[in-house]
Each structure stands twice: as structure tokens, then as C-alpha cells.
Specification:
This protein has 283 residues and is mainly α. The protein has one domain. The chain is built from 13 helices and 2 strands, in the order αααααααααααβααβ. Helix 1 packs antiparallel against helix 2, helix 3 crosses helix 4 and helix 4 packs across helix 11.
Length: 283
């Protein structure tokens, strides 16, 4: 049976620095979103910190794609190493999913370095102002249904190949590896990371919405009551729905594809969008 190569041993300091940095970014983003003071500059700064810190310094870890791969490749552990990899993958994936279950996709929006890279790049084509957005050319907006179908097909391929053949086809198609400087994967994964970067100029968060296995599963468990909701001040002008690049601002949308880019909050003329529990007084 062909098995995916285990992740290289990490510097012990990683086990201290990584949790502190990741939790700090998450809590800062959560607090600012909750208080409604996440300005465009603050959001950009958080994304830059995530890209540089979690991406370039920590090597894109924790890696949700690798965790998904290792979980299914080692689904039936046969050696102490495979058991360790399975438990490690289960722990990483579980913690990330718990964050989605309780707080929606703030992790994807501001902690994930690949998500941050795409978000920063998207600012070139996906504006917070409708007049500016109308002047943008060469941007693509595929139907969400098509994107979900592709993502689930890709997820199925990863799972089947991992379980049946003991390896994942995404071992060399994991853009997170582009942050890790692994000699045997460096050229290919860096190129793949650059492809995602270039695609982000034209499609909003292409990796998150088309390929990410964690994103697909997150869409199933993103049922937190804490999310962006409209208050009684909402006049149903529709501006938030027009500006949302992932089409998650509709009144009845479950916000499973909301990455808290804050475009809806910025464009609302009545400050009627808040991060809160949905109650009977909110639409």
C-alpha cells in the first residue's frame, strides 16, 4: 500500500509559537467583528499578519488539507506512526471544525494564511463600493451551485483515493505545502500556490469555494447562531446582497460561505448588520 509521507518533524518552538499566534489572531478578529469595529485597514492588517506569520513563518500550519489526507490515509492505523498521524489529524481537524460550529467561518476568514492571501488579492477586483465595483473588468462570478458541486467531487476523490489506495491525490495539489519549503515538493507546490494567487484576482477565494476539503465540510457544520444578521434598522435596500462576493448576504442565507470580509457592513447605510445571535427581533 502506498502511503503519504509523514509531515517533517517540527521545531519544538513551533508547538509554543503556533497556538499563541493562531489563537491571538482568531480572538482579535472575533472581538473586533463582535464589536463592529473591524475596519478595512484592520482587516487588511490581520490578513497580512496571518499570511506572513501563519503562512511564511509557520509554514502554513495547521494545514487542513494535510489533516484531511492523514485522517483518511490512516483511518485504520496499523503502526504506532500511523496511529499518531491519525490522532494528530483528528485533533487538528476537530479543533478547526469546533471553531466553525461555534463562531462560523472566522478561522477561514482571518486565521488561514491561504484564505488571507486570497482575501488581500481579492481587494483588487472585488470592491466595497458598488460604483467602483461596476468599473471592474475581467472578474468572474461562477454560480455557487456549480462551485459546490466541483468542491464535493474533489472532496470525494481525495477521500476515495486515501481510503482505497492509501494515498491522496492532493499530496502534490496542496497549496499549503507551498509555504513549507519542502525540497521534494517545493517547485510544484509553490507554482500551485501562485496559481491560486493569480486566480484570486478574478474569482473570489477560488481555493476556499472550489477545492478546499475543510471548506466543504465546514459548509455542513456552519450552523452557529453567531453570524452576521440584520437588525430592525434594515430597510431591505439590497446593497449588502449586491456587494457580497460569495452571495452569502441574502436575508435567508445560512452564511455557510460567509468569510467576514466586511463588505456588507461597510456598505450598509444604516449600520444594520451585526455579528450576533439571530433572534425574533432580527430578520
Amino acid at each position: 500500500m502506498i502511503r503519504q509521507e509523514p509531515v517533517p518533524e517540527l521545531d519544538p518552538s513551533f508547538n509554543v509559537i503556533a497556538p499563541i499566534l493562531i489563537v491571538s489572531i482568531f480572538l482579535i478578529a472575533l472581538i473586533m467583528i463582535r464589536r463592529g469595529n473591524l475596519s478595512k485597514n484592520k482587516a487588511n492588517l490581520l490578513s497580512i499578519i496571518s499570511f506572513l506569520g501563519v503562512g511564511l513563518i509557520l509554514g502554513g500550519r495547521p494545514n487542513p488539507v494535510n489533516a484531511f489526507n492523514q485522517f483518511f490515509v490512516n483511518l485504520i492505523p496499523t503502526t504506532p506512526l500511523s496511529l499518531r498521524l491519525f490522532l494528530s489529524a483528528l485533533g487538528v481537524f476537530s479543533l478547526m471544525l469546533v471553531s466553525v460550529i461555534f463562531f462560523s467561518r472566522i478561522f477561514c476568514g482571518y486565521v488561514c494564511p491561504l484564505g488571507s492571501m486570497q482575501e488581500l488579492t481579492s481587494k483588487m477586483k472585488f470592491k466595497s463600493n458598488l460604483k467602483e465595483q461596476k468599473r471592474v473588468k475581467c472578474s468572474f462570478d461562477p454560480p455557487e451551485e456549480i462551485l459546490r458541486i466541483i468542491r464535493w467531487i474533489y472532496l470525494g476523490i481525495l477521500g476515495v483515493t486515501a481510503i482505497v489506495w492509501g494515498f491522496s491525490v492532493s499530496q502534490h495539489l496542496d497549496p499549503f505545502n507551498g509555504f513549507q519549503y519542502m525540497e521534494e515538493l517545493a517547485l510544484f507546490t509553490v507554482i500551485f500556490l501562485l496559481v491560486i494567487f493569480l486566480m484570486s484576482f478574478f474569482i473570489y477565494r477560488p481555493w476556499c469555494r472550489i477545492f478546499c476539503p475543510f471548506g466543504a465540510i465546514s459548509g455542513l457544520v456552519s450552523f452557529s447562531r453567531l453570524k452576521y444578521v440584520r437588525t430592525d434598522e434594515c430597510t431591505e435596500c439590497g446593497l449588502c446582497e449586491k456587494i457580497c462576493p460569495s452571495h452569502a448576504a441574502d436575508q435567508d442565507d445560512q452564511k455557510t460561505e460567509c468569510y467576514y470580509c466586511n463588505r456588507c457592513v461597510e456598505i450598509c447605510p444604516h449600520n444594520a448588520i451585526v455579528y450576533s445571535k439571530k433572534t425574533s427581533t432580527m430578520t
